[in-house]
Amino acid sequence: xxxxxxxxxxxxxxxxxxxxxxxxxxxxxxxxxxxxxxxxxxxxxxxxxxxxxxxxxxxxxxxxxxxxxxxxxxxxxxxxxxxxxxxxxxxxxxxxxxxxxxxxxxxxxxxxxxxxxxxxxxxxxxxxxxxxxxxxxxxxxxxxxxxxxxxxxxxxxxxxxxxxxxxxxxxxxxxxxxxxxxxxxxxxxxxxxxxxxxxxxxxxxxxxxxxxxxxxxxxxxxxxxxxxxxxxxxxxxxxxxxxxxxxxxxxxxxxxxxxxxxxxxxxxxxxxxxxxxxxxxxxxxxxxxxxxxxxxxxxxxxxxxxxxxxxxxxxxxxxxxxxxxxxxxxxxxxxxxxxxxxxxxxxxxxxxxxxxxxxxxxxxxxxxxxxxxxxxxxxxxxxxxxxxxxxxxxxxxxxxxxxxxxxxxxxxxxxxxxxxxxxxxxxxxxxxxxxxxxxxxxxxxxxxxxxxxxxxxxxxxxxxxxxxxxxxxxxxxxxxxxxx
Length: 484
Fold this sequence. Notes:
Layout: H1 15-18, E1 31-32, H2 38-46, E2 51-61, E3 64-69, H3 81-88, E4 94-99, H4 105-114, E5 123-130, H5 142-152, E6 157-162, H6 176-188, E7 195-200, H7 201-204, H8 208-218, E8 221-225, H9 234-243, E9 249-252, H10 255-264, H11 274-277, E10 289-291, E11 299-301, E12 305-309, E13 315-317, E14 319-320, E15 329-339, E16 351-358, E17 368-373, E18 377-382, E19 391-394, E20 400-407, E21 413-421, E22 437-444, E23 455-461, E24 467-477, E25 481-482
Helix pairs in contact: 4-5, 6-8, 9-10
């Protein structure tokens, strides 16, 4: 391996800006994983690996309790943290310190603080701080860990993850509940340090939508890792590569997977089938939506999804539309109603209102309203005519809902069609183990003024703060005029 370029940086530097020869592509960062012994440290340094990941626990010694480099259930090592750090500093490689106990954090951070002027390379402080899906491992105390890092060594990148477990039959990866819980934690603790989220590849491929939103709104990166025994395929890694900007993802992978990634890093789609890519075919259009009110954090727009926090969150289109009988307006998307894990549960029904033919001055008074609830109830009505008939429907509630809202024009129908199905990060098409239920309602709504142009508004319905409304793959066809 050629010598790497080692500029002078602070410990909170992004590895991609430190290792400039990567040209801002996370696939080109090389890793040595679990560097927990003298032999492994010597090997990683001789191979000139860019980033060194190692695990830290506390251990009793003749000199008292000291941090050592070991991963549970191991309790001993031939390498203390102090020896490890003294070996790394002259080489100026990036480091990722994975804490396996909260008791190990203060002495390690104190040592980093004392030596801070010598740490002119990336430093990541890693801990699993939230529970993962069905994981038996207890996370570290999230608030305690983050507050210690902010107090004792704030000039580092925080690497915050979820505990993991994987079984071959498991279909759930990183869910919207998990990423929203992480975002709520970071907001509550006012975390402003650089962030990376370590995610297990076999689970990340089942949670692309939620993870993409999280790195977008937090201006963060992912660090994708994998264990040798995980059922991860080449296609899984290439799919992840195809769905994130190259500067947003680092890859800490076993050699066979990393070699495959490097072989196909420039054209990952060429190795993927249409079936692999179909769930991601219609992109969200973030540039044509904006918040209706001043940003108070209730609307969180990513590049592929938007999260609406109850109550009183809303987005409005920056485009106008009018179906004239020859061109229809088609709005499609996928809705997830997600429980807020940090709020007390309430029995209140939560829904999404979609307003078409809306005017900015009176969006909720003179518009066609389509409504979908978390329990599958559907409504279609004309708000400008409060005594007109309200069309009703019901679709079997499942994990998420895919909707289509079609405005055919003046004297023609407005169709509201909803399908419910399974979601592993994206809406899954029908299969033997995944039945999809579908319902459509429609009505005629004449235009009050034949040539008037209208906007589209989306807003959550309900007063409870125990749920979020997530909309992804939101797409408008037949856009006519764009607002400045």
